[in-house]
């Protein structure tokens, strides 16, 4: 993909909000040929989908691409660290948010 994109111009497409609460830009990246790079990375299993409402313009396509990549064990989905687990399968050291007050 890197070689494919060498010397390629891209454009940013923003949804409802341009930045999140941490001032990070929230944008979709497209090539001049119209290739949606965010979607392509998810489709190939190189990224997972993050949703930041009200920015949901491409959420259906992104989630479908993620499900297909996960089902096909593509990219990150081939590693057990990314395999969804039931909370009952986690030991105390691996449970996020575990602790006492």
UniProtKB/TrEMBL annotation:
All copies of domain TNase-like, residue ranges: 8-78
Gene3D superfamilies (alphabetical): 2.40.50.90
Signal peptide segment: none
Coiled coil residues, start to end: none
UniProt protein name: Thermonuclease family protein
């Amino acid at each position: 993909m890197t070689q494919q994109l060498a010397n390629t111009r891209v454009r940013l497409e923003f949804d409802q909000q341009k930045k999140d609460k941490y001032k990070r830009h929230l944008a979709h990246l497209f090539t001049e040929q119209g290739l949606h790079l965010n979607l392509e990375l998810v489709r190939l299993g190189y990224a997972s989908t993050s949703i930041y409402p009200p920015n949901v313009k491409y959420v259906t396509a992104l989630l479908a691409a993620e499900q297909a990549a996960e089902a096909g064990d593509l990219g990150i989905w081939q590693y057990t660290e990314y395999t969804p687990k039931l909370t009952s399968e986690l030991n105390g050291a691996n449970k996020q948010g575990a602790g006492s007050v």
